[in-house]
Amino acid sequence: MSGVHEECGVVGIYAPQGEDIVRFLYYGLLSLQHRGQEACGIAVTDTGRDELDVNCIKDLGLVSEVFSKETLAALNGNLGIGHVRYSTTGESVRENTQPLVLNYCKGKLSLAHNGNIVNTDELREELIRTGAIFHTTMDSELIAFHIAKNRVHSKSVEEAVYKTAKKLKGAYGLVIMSPKKLIAVRDPFGIRPLCLGRRGKTYIVASESCALNSMGAEFIRDIEPGEIVTITEEGITSNYKLKQETKAHCVFEYIYFARLDSVIDGIKVYDARIKAGELLYKRHPVDADIVTGVPESGIAAAKGFAKASGIPFDLAFHKNSYIGRTFIKPSQSERSIGVQMKLSVLEEVVKDKRVVLVDDSIVRGTTMENLVKMLKKAGAKEVHIRISSPPFMYPCYYGVDVPSNKELIATRKSAEKINETIGGDTLEYLSVEDLQETAKGLMICTACFTGEYKAGQKSNDNEG
Amino acid sequence: MSGVHEECGVVGIYAPQGEDIVRFLYYGLLSLQHRGQEACGIAVTDTGRDELDVNCIKDLGLVSEVFSKETLAALNGNLGIGHVRYSTTGESVRENTQPLVLNYCKGKLSLAHNGNIVNTDELREELIRTGAIFHTTMDSELIAFHIAKNRVHSKSVEEAVYKTAKKLKGAYGLVIMSPKKLIAVRDPFGIRPLCLGRRGKTYIVASESCALNSMGAEFIRDIEPGEIVTITEEGITSNYKLKQETKAHCVFEYIYFARLDSVIDGIKVYDARIKAGELLYKRHPVDADIVTGVPESGIAAAKGFAKASGIPFDLAFHKNSYIGRTFIKPSQSERSIGVQMKLSVLEEVVKDKRVVLVDDSIVRGTTMENLVKMLKKAGAKEVHIRISSPPFMYPCYYGVDVPSNKELIATRKSAEKINETIGGDTLEYLSVEDLQETAKGLMICTACFTGEYKAGQKSNDNEG
Amino acid sequence: MSGVHEECGVVGIYAPQGEDIVRFLYYGLLSLQHRGQEACGIAVTDTGRDELDVNCIKDLGLVSEVFSKETLAALNGNLGIGHVRYSTTGESVRENTQPLVLNYCKGKLSLAHNGNIVNTDELREELIRTGAIFHTTMDSELIAFHIAKNRVHSKSVEEAVYKTAKKLKGAYGLVIMSPKKLIAVRDPFGIRPLCLGRRGKTYIVASESCALNSMGAEFIRDIEPGEIVTITEEGITSNYKLKQETKAHCVFEYIYFARLDSVIDGIKVYDARIKAGELLYKRHPVDADIVTGVPESGIAAAKGFAKASGIPFDLAFHKNSYIGRTFIKPSQSERSIGVQMKLSVLEEVVKDKRVVLVDDSIVRGTTMENLVKMLKKAGAKEVHIRISSPPFMYPCYYGVDVPSNKELIATRKSAEKINETIGGDTLEYLSVEDLQETAKGLMICTACFTGEYKAGQKSNDNEG
Amino acid sequence: MSGVHEECGVVGIYAPQGEDIVRFLYYGLLSLQHRGQEACGIAVTDTGRDELDVNCIKDLGLVSEVFSKETLAALNGNLGIGHVRYSTTGESVRENTQPLVLNYCKGKLSLAHNGNIVNTDELREELIRTGAIFHTTMDSELIAFHIAKNRVHSKSVEEAVYKTAKKLKGAYGLVIMSPKKLIAVRDPFGIRPLCLGRRGKTYIVASESCALNSMGAEFIRDIEPGEIVTITEEGITSNYKLKQETKAHCVFEYIYFARLDSVIDGIKVYDARIKAGELLYKRHPVDADIVTGVPESGIAAAKGFAKASGIPFDLAFHKNSYIGRTFIKPSQSERSIGVQMKLSVLEEVVKDKRVVLVDDSIVRGTTMENLVKMLKKAGAKEVHIRISSPPFMYPCYYGVDVPSNKELIATRKSAEKINETIGGDTLEYLSVEDLQETAKGLMICTACFTGEYKAGQKSNDNEG
Fold first, then answer.
1. Predicted ipTM?
2. Fewer CB atoms < 10 Å away: N or C end of chain C?
3. Domains by residue range for chain D, with CATH
């Protein structure tokens, strides 16, 4: 799948015993890079120093571009937060990078945010009425400002965070750093993931468990929806809890965004994808010679399809790992070159075979159309497309960047018509019910497939 | 003189008839570059568009470095402000560049500031008590925040500016841009200069009149101390006036900062420097063969000295104009090379001559020491130093960046001792009374010479 | 495998009918990027213009870094060559990038080289005796110089190339551009690959067939060992042929360097790797639950092993595709983090399983040691290592960059000892005889395994 | 004057006792920067090391841009050469920067060149006939190549240099570095300057004596026209001397290029300019109130004019020292802004005055036209233009970059017509005879005024 983007990942680390944790923030961001490739940043402080200052490096670019050996060496501290941000075109500006580092009544306040707030107009209005100024267009700045305002009449920063969170509508996983505390907050619907880990006496909060693994930390538990966790010198406390809501975990994390080796809310991403493949076969069986998946998005579901069907799984594509952000704009008659540069078919695998091609979704349909053409050109006798999610038809207001309605092929065409365009032999989707089955026991958000927005609807979708 | 830095220059332009004024902002900043070489920026809007957005380019660097043909072409509009900022070492960071461009209750608010506020603690405290957050450490952000706060209960932005200005203590020349207005404010003491000009129907506000010349505009008048000027589609109004204070125009503008071709508060900078030279001769005559000045700082006063004394004026130094921000760190035994790289003596001018060497000030004394050595090595029989200002002994809280007390040679040594160190034959300063005489009719601030701070004293001196 | 590097890839294109071929050079280089990531370049001319000039862009960096939309747009022509160069540390300098573009007696001579010449001392000596000067340390410059020298007494550039090639010892795939000709040369042993393709009336020469696919061109044939192919306006000629030698095709191309979808000298890289896996099972069978490969180097052989053994193939590792040239230097106690950042084990795949882990080679052994640890930590009951090549023991003088002898684990330890260090349950290599079997019918070079250097031995190994 | 460019400066230093001389090369280049602002470089070796390697840093840009504290610290050695190169538009490419550092039969050969060779076709042809290749289009490469060729049959590098120099036609000041020698060569006509100095036991060769001053070295003597000086561990020798020619020292060095504080061939640049001003008055007296010069080019001659006439000298312009390479492209109606940005008139100096305006030359006439307008607008009653050189009418083949004939106003118009265009009250030039008088006793080259090319004519003028 191409065309849909996750909108950020966060990590926060506190080592009360004073260990320098900058490299762990860096490893964490590297392992969360799949959640956002536009920009990234690290803010860090040393709670042992008399003067509590925060050093922050952030910029547009990948983690490997923004941080060098030298810049990392220049940072150090035992308390810090980090952020990666998704990549779109055009509106990415340096001002909108995170973490935000601000001065407020209690010194420095730093914040990184994964998700999207839907009642930003309301939140902004309330501040503007009192004469506020805003330096950015990020909802993260709104959240920070409300925390600062609430801090004035609160006995602690976590109380101020609590009062603020009560007003937020939408999806969020927040890591907040005040001079000697690390606070993590997850929205009451549990839309965005957020989990807790430890490495010796060092505590880590991260969007996904793979970030914990990257630094050799062990997984403790997911932050509960609506929970506010505070990590201080004395350890973890969790005194504030937002009002319970019906859960609405983003199912797209399992289908696509989250890393294959992450575990979110008790469900292994790998298992969910295998299950989706199995269900795809169960609902839409087909007689074929091999099952393959679009790298990397369709591989796991293809393995599940193969397992359920008994049809052998194979890797039919070679992926060029150096394409990166390469500029390719072939002329009209060379339209398929863009896809061909990234993926090439291994003829030996598909020649004279009936192929099941699995992917996680179809957004615009152009990539799939090219892949089918490439498979047929390489000698595939039949190409049966199986999509491990329902047709993608509605915008997401909770932190996923999707193309406009007009660009979504499923909003304009039936599955049958889409298949005609794409040129497959058959095309089948997973149903919403089956999707729910892949995340057994979890209440999921299916808004992008059904249009039911459990956590509210609307408004600004310009951030992550 | 080296070691003392002006701390900024501002320019604002409004062309109600819709002309693109970006190139004029650029010319203005180029001609104000002597007021600050650390950073610069331009913010511009087009009042004719339905959607009133502000485009801003700013960064560390000279005007010629930050703006290229391409970046200038990308900006356009008929209303804009610009800023140049002084250069110090170390704490120059991208976040602290100007203009500030903010969102507030009435859309975009942009602001550029020349000067220094002394009651920042108080201003910050008032905001922080209400839960404010700050992104920078600039007093400019404080001013903008207070304007936004005051705007809520004011009938116009100029009223909000007026209410804010009433609270400000210190020195300031401000240009403020709201969606369809350009506002200029000058502190009640008139410490920093600010003047008004026009080019056809286009109005310009600038720190110095030389900026008006650079764009072919005519000088209208100085903004009066305490005056708030508003330029709208209908023209200029000046409805708000701050409480009158005894004037305290910065005399250093005449002695050193302002460009030789500027006119400030009715006094030509050129005339003031000539006058200073004349008075220097009158008070401290000397028998000599030629008068010369340290380029460029002492040239005009040297001409005045020559005029009054009848001793011929000559240029004794060649200046290397490519030194720029060159790194030169000669070893101990080559200490004088730094000065020699910048200035070399024209032997033919000084050989076997008794030389009067004029400069505007002595800060650390090291440069002057080297110049005297160079003159004597080139054959000068005598070197009589004449300084066109009194000994520099006190810090400035009004927007001038001076070395710490310890580094100021005049706080530690008498003129006689200084001369001994420097190796001149005689050394004489201008008195405070004579200095006043150079700016005849103006009430001047002489705090850096006398320690009398008319506009209040104190605190943060980290901005421009 | 990590630690061994291919040393370059070349591409040359000529469109006699005048089509702009710059984008095809670019696509070709992108698809050859796996052969070299240190530097790249394109040189191009337009044979239709009166003044035949060559434009060249080259620099350190990936193809996606060196060429932007703008730089590509600035180039155009119908005849051109391109080069990618491998990445080592330290001695990569801008001067040593290719293509070389030179002036010689017949105008411009451009050249790009894949391989390594062993008799450079001799070639240099011959030139130096006549008073030559050298701007670089590349053997490519030596080749170009000899061509220029020979050109003086030759009736065509291809004759000069022929005379030069007769003197060259070692491995080379050359693309040479003279004002209106594209010439391709392959060493008589056929060590480095070079093939020919067409796209309509446009001819392409490239190191690997995958480059042809990337631009939608069809494969014509391999350039024969010792063949000199000339492409002019009139088409392809092949009038010069070097003396036949026993072939010595680099078997490492099949094992590791070449792209999985390339076909070299009639053998599909994919087939060779599948075959290697099959033979590995045949010689060293083992009872296990799953077969997996190290991504990407061991995947294909693992599929072959699975096919031969009937043990299911599965993907046990998740690869982080954003690591790039990331700096990771974990402290001593976190040594395994480097590998963990790149690869993570999918616990679900290996838990309680007996695992066969296939890779193409073991260089230093540290990566394999970490992978075994990771698999065991994830619950693998047994880990049986199978290497699809013989132990790597001798340096390569033909264009492959290998670590020094001291770093090669196989030069110091027996397979048994290596397995002890690595911690596998069993460890087996492919024999040289079986390796020959994977490239059935081809005469291969096995110098790195056996120390038999068919094409001569020695000297400078600093280029590509 | 604007529009004419000097084409390079060189410096070479050898400290046989082992002192690190990199900083002195750097100071030397800084002080020669007026001779070329396009590119610069330093090549340095340490004769005390066993392995004699040459480190070279060179790039497009000013000395202050190409060299930072870090890059300078990375270089060190006791023998080195440096180069600055002029600035033109368009064809400045990185490949054409100097010093050239090459490998030849005796190790490393490094070379930097100031001047222009006129028989390059011949020199190139001779090499090309033997099969040479060229990496650049610089005549410096040709020179180096001939030296390398001649070295084969010479007993020393200086003999090879001598044999090469005998073939060179045109203007040159060369510094050449072989592993343990520094060689300096000056063309037999003495067109370009080159002098010798010492600092303790360290020897320095430089284009101008100001470079010696910059490093605290003393002037020894000018290198004689046609002399080849060799500096080794044992000191200075001068065994090779080219055939004597009638001298033809470039008079433009005195008029414009050389720094005011340099002494060339026994004549002080300062004196020559004063003398030119005096003669200008003597030949073309005028009744006026003040004499002023265009900064910096006309200042010294203006002082001479004032001295001879008794009319007071004054500085009428303020120069903006921050313009640099600023982009200014005013619209048609703002044509004069470009000049105004650089220079502004001090009204007080010229108001109601009859002004003599002195400059060194008129190239296109546009700058002078604007200056006259500015003076008149500022109140000057009369403006009498005096040019301290004859009309500039012929191209220079000896290392000066001049506009094409069409752009030279004097080739199209008489002085009278030029004055009409410019708008002065009178306009007078210095005659060729008087020019000769300013450099009394020297044989000068006046080709650009008279078209008499004593040192040969022709050909490629693309370098420095």
1. 0.91
2. N
3. 9-247 (3.60.20.10), 270-444 (3.40.50.2020)
